[in-house]
Specification:
Blueprint: E1 10-16, E2 22-27, H1 30-39, H2 45-48, E3 54-61, H3 64-76, H4 79-86
Antiparallel strand pairs: 1-2, 1-3
Length: 87
């Protein structure tokens, strides 16, 4: 009998960089991605030059399509509105 595995949640997140700028991203492994942003050459160039970064906000989605749509919507928000999410 095969077990049905739960779908891997996709996470949209906002990081605050050392220079107080904000970075919005999407992943299916948040812990791994945070390590990449802070310690790896595979982190986004934007965050590599603004380390350290800290996780300030995250939302989980059951599928990638929804997560990418939310990521795009967050990226369009002005900084002030993003900051309200972090409170």
């Amino acid at each position: 009998m095969q077990r049905k595995s739960k779908p891997v949640p996709h996470v949209v997140y906002i990081l605050e960089c050392a220079d107080t700028s904000l970075y919005v991203g999407c992943t299916n492994n948040l812990e791994k991605r945070l390590k990449e942003h802070n310690h790896s050459k595979q982190g986004a160039h934007y965050t590599k030059i603004r380390r350290p970064v800290s996780l300030r906000y995250s939302e989980a989605f059951s599928n990638l399509k929804e997560a990418r749509a939310r990521e795009a919507a967050l990226k369009r928000l002005p900084r002030k509105k993003k900051l309200t999410l972090l409170q």
